[in-house]
């Protein structure tokens, strides 16, 4: 009896410790931002310019606008990147879109790269809408593709549910951050605990434009089943809206021809 009681005590203490750690450090776990000095000079091939957005007083968002070198400009991709690093890294992916005849706009979230401002889930969504409204002054909505990667998939989906873009493309999307947490450690009350819930599942059904997902079967961060669940939620067969990358992981889908062939097909028109 004493042994059982001790085990229960240790279990309870472990749960309390996990709750404390998850509460105090969740933003550092979810958002692993890096910063850049204002005078940092980006070095990328191709034609690009640096842009600043000011959605609120005291807030500035750094962005990069890459222009396709093709005479056939099909439209604009508004790109929301993952939860780590900054545009110094993410700008390397611009060529995937400019070579398919699209301009691409990439932004750094608040406190990422050169961007400043207080971070919150509400702010992420509000900033996305602000940037999208700017994009609508450059291209009509039926020429705008919203692209989300990892963390950015929740932001992209919410934005697409409130607007009318040409297409929504999601790379390694999650059902929600609650769902991701439960896939790692199901004993914690994530619905109560998380300040960033990112309920893709609640937004995606309101998206009116075509949707396509990319996911690797060996994703070690966001389970491949997340995309399967999203497809099921939309009453779609996975083969209809999901490009599955066998052996693909969370960060390396761009190394697979399956990804590039699917992206080229989707951006063809």
What would your notes on this structure say?
- With 269 residues, the chain is an alpha/beta fold.
- The chain has two domains: 1-30; 34-266, Rossmann fold (3-Layer(aba) Sandwich).
- The chain is built from eleven helices and ten strands.
- The strands form two sheets. Strands 2-3-6-4-7-8-9-10 form an eight-stranded mixed sheet, sandwiched between helices.
- Strand 7 (144-149), helix 5 and strand 8 form a beta-alpha-beta unit.
- Helix 4 crosses helix 5 (151-162).
Going by helix content, strand content and strand pairing, the class is: alpha/beta
Sketch the topology as an H/E string, one letter per element. HEEEEEHHEHEHEHHHEHHEH
Shape: globular
Q: Which CATH architecture of the largest domain is right?
A: 3-Layer(aba) Sandwich
Amino- and carboxy-terminal Cα gap = 70 Å
Q: What percent of the residues sit in helical stretches (DSSP H or I)?
A: 25-40%
Using the coordinates above, name the CATH class of the largest domain.
Alpha Beta
CATH homologous superfamily of the largest domain, by name?
Alpha/Beta hydrolase fold, catalytic domain
Give the helix/strand layout.
Layout: H1 2-30, E1 32-33, E2 47-53, E3 61-67, E4 75-80, E5 84-85, H2 87-90, H3 95-98, E6 102-107, H4 121-135, E7 144-149, H5 151-162, E8 167-171, H6 177-184, H7 190-193, H8 200-203, E9 211-216, H9 225-233, H10 238-241, E10 242-245, H11 257-266
Helix pairs in contact: 4-5
Structure summarized in a few sentences:
The protein is α/β, with parallel strands linked by helices.
């Amino acid at each position: 009896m004493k042994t059982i009681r001790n085990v229960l005590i240790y279990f309870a203490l472990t749960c309390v410790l996990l709750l404390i750690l998850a509460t105090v450090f969740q933003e550092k776990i979810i958002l692993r931002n890096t910063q850049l000095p204002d005078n940092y000079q980006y070095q990328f091939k191709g034609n690009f310019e640096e842009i600043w957005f000011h959605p609120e007083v005291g807030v500035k968002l750094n962005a990069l606008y890459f222009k396709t070198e093709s005479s056939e400009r099909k439209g604009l991709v508004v790109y929301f990147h993952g939860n780590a690093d900054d545009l110094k890294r993410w700008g390397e992916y611009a060529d995937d879109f400019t070579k398919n005849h699209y301009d691409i706009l990439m932004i750094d979230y608040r406190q990422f790269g050169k961007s400043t401002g207080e971070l919150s889930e509400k702010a992420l969504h509000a900033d996305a809408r602000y940037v999208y409204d700017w994009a609508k002054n450059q291209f009509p909505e039926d020429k705008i593709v919203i692209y989300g990667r990892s963390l950015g998939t929740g932001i992209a989906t919410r934005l697409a549910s409130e607007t009318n873009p040409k297409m929504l493309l999601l790379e390694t999307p999650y059902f929600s951050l609650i769902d991701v947490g439960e896939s790692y450690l199901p004993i914690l009350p994530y619905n109560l605990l998380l300040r960033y819930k990112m309920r893709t599942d609640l937004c995606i059904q309101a998206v009116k434009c075509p949707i396509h997902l990319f996911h690797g079967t060996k994703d070690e961060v966001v389970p491949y089943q997340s995309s399967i669940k999203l497809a099921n939620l939309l009453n779609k067969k996975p083969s209809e809206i999901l490009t599955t990358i066998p052996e693909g992981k969370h960060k390396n889908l761009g190394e697979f021809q399956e990804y590039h062939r699917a992206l080229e097909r989707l951006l063809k028109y």
